[in-house]
From TrEMBL:
SUPFAM superfamilies for this protein: Homeodomain-like
One Gene Ontology term of the molecular function aspect: DNA-binding transcription factor activity
Residue stretches making up the HTH araC/xylS-type domain: 205-303
PANTHER family (alphabetical): HTH-TYPE TRANSCRIPTIONAL ACTIVATOR RHAS-RELATED, TRANSCRIPTIONAL REGULATORY PROTEIN
UniProt-annotated stretches for the region Disordered: 1-36
Name of the protein: Putative transcriptional regulatory protein
Amino acid sequence: MLTDIQAAGARSTYQPSRHEPASPQETRAFPLERRWRQPAATPDDITISRWTCTQTGIRHEEATTPADRYFFAIALKTSRAKLTRGRHTIFDGIMPAGTLYIGAPLQQLSAQFSAPCDFLHFHVSASTYFPFLRPGAGTASAEGLNDLVLLRDPFAEQLAKALTERGHSADREFARCIGQTLAMHLARRELPHSKVNALPKWRLRRVEEYVGTHFDHCISLSELAKVAGLSRMHFAAQFRAATGYRPREYLLHQRIERAKSLLSNSETALAEVALTVGFCTQAHFSTVFKRITGDTPARWRCASRNASASSRLSGGDPASTYKAVSHVLPADFS
């Protein structure tokens, strides 16, 4: 097994948002799965399906990749998952949007999801797209493309976005081209020569608790490294391995989550919200907020209230009526 970034089994920092998308609609290009990793469509050289789960409790799934297939999964929203095979843990932690998982033929996989999730699944012909994969061969070997977990692969995330944004207008040929591009991307990807150990659970818990109580103050990398009991260099690498986020990026996401709560549940002015969650200026707060959620704070607050009002009038579940106004997007912080 080889993982690009192996995640530790940390307490989940994922907070289900009331403003995430409702369940996706069926499309011809990528129909919804009735059972995990079991597409209803007749297998082609590339079959694409979508699996979504809106429940907040723990859900267990299990599947085995067919003998003639590779299996790719791209997370469309941030979730929390544990992937295992027998007693061996492959991944246990937060899966940010854009996370890519690859499974080789004939590999059994058990999954435990403890947060709502939404995935695109690609079932790809091994003989058509990976005929050269054999032990020890090529840039990507058969061993390298098994249980490979790439947290927030930007190119894969953009391919998934291109496909899902087309919705009903995405025909099967377009979807097949997306699948082919993804397969070529992975076949030619240079696999990491070594892996970084993830930050142990107890160290990560200390960092999470520290950020949770000091998010409104200026927190430096050195400060977080000291909390974890590591050097700056080792802490930054191990923290990213455990969470998929750089420390600075993680701090910003936590601040934005706090800001969302204030925007939804109070009349606090935007400038005051910015200062309350640790930003020095409203301008910087608005820039970061839009980068992470895709909307300005004012528009997000308006959409949140409109969705709440619509839900109250319909008497339905808020989670089923909200429009997608919040997305976790990869950001490039040094």
